[in-house]
Amino acid sequence: MTRPARFLAAALTALLWTVAPASARTIVDSAGRTVEVPDTVSRVFAAGPPASILVYALKPEALLGWPRALRREERPYIAEAYRDLPETGRLTGRGGEANLERVLALKPDLIIDFGSVRDTYADLADRVQAQTGIPYILINGRFEETASSLRLVGEALGVAERGETLARDVEETFAALDAALGAVPEAERPRVYLARGPDGLETGMKGSINTEIIERAGGRNVAEAPGQYGLVQASPEQVILADPDTIITWDRTFFDAVWSSPVWSGITAVREGRVYLSPTAPFGWIDRPPSLNRMMGLKWLAGLFYPELWTKDLREETRAFYRLWYHVELSEAELDTLLEWANGRAP
User: Fold this and answer.
1) How far apart are CA 33 and CA 152, in angstroms?
2) 137: helix, coil or strand?
């Protein structure tokens, strides 16, 4: 072993002694892994953006930092005490750059990842846990698993009552949506395309974690092909052929440009003015990232897709959601900004 390698190994060993839990309890995570979690969890490293939202919603005081520091327009929509948490980087997903030395230096009691629980992510969790000695749990980020995931993490973080409150809110929203939209025939549901990126040509295939909100809100994702999953790059010809009647985007550049683009001008959604811009403060209502923030987007999409069936007041739904999930009481001006944003006038 080289001298630098011996030094790093010694440093990691020293840090391991400082983070090892004195006592633990057993948690079975969403990947079926049995993990010993400290009896008291007060410091959590979020492996990626979806996990940071999960921890913030359930137990904000335990969150060690944001994978990406909050931007100016996002800050008012987070409780003041957590706006200046440090940027920690991410262990998983695109651009994962947090190194283990950085993780160890933060001395977390627990690492949480929220999203896919495929073998790739389970293997990563096992490796990180073995190398650091820090318990690492994987939580299923699929939309239909949201309530059970909230209960599981609420238990792990010692806030089971809070987890139950949020889980019940999810179940009540899903039930209300099913009651309102359940009788709508498949053929009468809107044909929806999710336009990601400045050119609008990145999208998610039907059933992907990025677009499952479309189907849950009663839409039909036009990006569907046998054997294709996750995020893909579409061609203009594919979008023209699919001819969606509704387009959802969170990219301001695309939203501003689509109305005058000759590439998009013949598509029904553009011709009929049914291109909608999702707010992204503090997190995207639709995606970016695919986490608990999608529960707000679900309410918004239901009203867009079925205004005669989903008649709840968006202003009051937004106010209540931000209070319950994001620990913040919005001013009238802050609510105005979000609703104007959802109408295409982003700040």
Assistant:
1) 13
2) strand
